[in-house]
Amino acid sequence: MQPPYVLAVSSCLIAALAAAQTPQPSPVASEPAEKPPAAEAPASQIGGLRFVDVAEVTIVNVDVGVTDRNGPVVGLTKDDFEVFQDGKLQDLTNFYLFTRASAAPDATAGPTPTPAPAQPTPAPAFEPPPREPRFLAVYVDNENITPFNRNRVLNKTNDFLRSFLKPPDKAMIVSYQRSLKVQQPFTSDPEECVEALRLLRTYTGGRTEVNSSRRQIEDAINNYADKGGSMEQALGDARAFAREGRNNLMFTVGGIKELIGMMSGLPGKKSVIYVSDGLPMRPGLELFYGIQEKYSDPGVISQTMDFDATDLFRSLVTTANASSVTLYTIDARGLEAELGSEAENRVARSTLAASVARTNYQDSLVYMAQQTGGMAIINSNDVASGLEKIANDLQTYYSLGYRLVPSGQDRSHVVSVKVKGHPDYRLTYQKRFIEKSLATRIGDRVMSGLSFDLEDNPLAIEIRTGEPMPSSAGRWLLPVEISVPIEKIALIPDGRELVGYVMAYYAARDDEGRQSDLQRTEAALRIPEAEYERAKVGTYTISATLLLEPGMYRISVGVRDQLTNQAGYATVRKPVHPEEKAK
Predict the structure, then answer these.
(1) Preceding amide of 42 cis, omega within 30
(2) Bridge partners, residue 173, by sequence
(3) 330-347, pLDDT tens digit by residue?
(4) Could you read off the pLDDT of 410-460 as tens digits, one per residue?
(5) What is the CATH number of the domain that holds 492?
(6) Other C-beta atoms within 10 Å of 180: how many?
(7) CA separation for the pair 275, 157 (Å, rounded)
(8) Could you say which of 193, 244, 465, 579 is the most buried, measured as most Cβ atoms within 10 Å of its Cβ?
(9) Which of 464, 463, 467, 465 is nearest to 577 (CA)?
(10) Are 272 and 328 in contact (CB under 8 A)?
(11) Has residue 221 been placed in a domain?
(12) CB-based burial of residue 113 (10 Å sphere; 0-12 exposed, 13-18 middle, 19+ buried)?
């Protein structure tokens, strides 16, 4: 039976063709004017779900790990903490202690004195909510690691996952081989993750080739200097190495940002353990220092500024903080990073060059972790000890909540946390967060739906796809219908009609990881007031046309009722003549 009220809205999504880097969704800067204003419940609402007052429910939760020389510090109370946003002290509304010993928050936040026999046991000051799942991605960067170092770390990672991973928490295994590969989607089964890590051992680490190329240039620099060759020859080789290194780094950082974008719409605590042999903050820096030593020319180092990658890492941590994703980093080289030569070197590297290389490749890992509230495990062959520290940080922390007065826009805020009287304590937390508009948060959920199942559909939306039709340049037009039960949509009187407003968000991603940008369509539903009882049993449909390359697609959709702020999400998979692509 054809629904009595159907709105056809034609749109096009074009899947990206470039295999080098998947485009990231752009944050939505502002929302269309709402009817009525979001701060007030709809007047004379008919049908629909309950009104969600965004201004009332916006609580910022800052997760703070506190450690001393003996490990995690528990037993602190709400009064021990001071939280500042943009330099202003905040009143805490929520305070919970999460520990490894319990699956739920510890509401007591420390030992409670035993009451006198005649006194009743006091109730907790803060009633803990059910804990949301923790989402952890183990990211193995095969392009920037050697097989030996990788396998040594993975042996200990297996034990870590078996100890750490328990429902409702979920972990996924991701690798990077010139592009992002999801080896194991989110699961609560540690053995599935261990099996995915086992399969990663078959890949050849890309850093082996980079190290070999660097050694050849180091040998060439020594030969140039020993034979009276021109410094320009040495600089030319170093610049070529640095230029290629920075270009590769752009794709490496892009892969990490792609994973963060996939996780941005997930609820709860989200973390990434990034494993590599380090990433250069200034590609080729050690080569320029080697040239400086050989030719005694201090001006050589100034040329490294042309290849400085600080902007790439700054962009990465901004993306992570905007998505509330914490980065933990592991330098898989361990203590070998401090040596002046590797076993396969023909010529020992100078002590200065070795020290510069170690610092250059580790500074980025430290920066990524510190700026997102995580920690970096460097200069340690005891990876098990480092993973234990990460487990403590993930599972033992204080959640400090304070009320945010929403601005309705995407806005960055600086957060600072102190423990009174304990400057010796080490605190880990995200020092910056992005206040997101409701439109941006819904968009994030839709983009995460391209990769993960999100069971959150109070509006009971459904997606139907038609058959693809040939278009130009080898692309196909895919008809899509997004249906919402009319009784789920809030309506308000407008003369002799009832009117409601919905916003549809949608995007598409194929199995090769290429995805479209997030698209939005606003629509108004109008029903004669006298016909509402008959109409409410039907559905309201938004029709879209997606322009896609051949492939197997996952289409993610979110619909927001603009009168109540309720949103629902759904996904569907659809082949767009993938057999045509193979011809």
Answers:
(1) no
(2) 138, 184
(3) 999 988 644 444 444 444
(4) 888 999 999 999 999 999 998 988 888 889 989 999 999 998 887 889 999
(5) 2.60.40.10
(6) 20
(7) 10
(8) 193
(9) 467
(10) yes
(11) yes
(12) exposed
The angle formed by the CA atoms of residues 445, 449 and 450, to the nearest 5 degrees, is 130
Nearest to 243 by CA among 205, 206, 213: 213
Backbone angles phi, psi at 347, to 5 degrees: -130, 130
- Both 315 and 200 in a single domain? yes
Give yes or no: residues 75 and 219 share one domain. Answer: no
Three-state SS for 234-292 is: HHHHHHHHHHHHHHHHHHHHHHHHHHHHHHCCCCCCEEEEEEECCCCCCCCHHHHHHHH
Q: What is the pTM of this model?
A: 0.79
Side chain identity, residue 506: Y
Best CA proximity match to 502, nearest among 516, 491, 517: 491
> How many other CB atoms sit within 10 Å of the CB of residue 414?
11
The residues with which 482 forms a beta bridge, in sequence order, are 463, 542
What amino acid is encoded at 526 in this protein?
R
- Give the separation between CA 395 and CA 160, rounded to whole angstroms: 13
Same-domain pairing of 358 and 211: yes
Question: Does residue 116 lie within any of the structural domains?
Answer: no
b/e for 86-103, b at 16 or more Cβ within 10 A? eeeebebebbbbbeeeee
The angle, 0 to 180 degrees and rounded to 10, between the axes of the packed helices 285-295 and 231-263 is 160
For residue 472 the two structure tokens come to 């130009």
Query: In whole angstroms, how far apart are CA 129 and each of 43, 98, 105, 132, 163?
Result: 31, 12, 8, 9, 25
Residues in the chain, total? 583
The CATH number of the domain holding residue 267 is: 3.40.50.410
The β-bridge partners of 476 are: 470, 548
Sign of the Cα torsion 512, 514, 520, 523 reads negative
Q: How far apart are CA 306 and CA 288, in angstroms?
A: 12
Residue 86: CB partners within 8 Å, gap ≥ 6? 413, 414
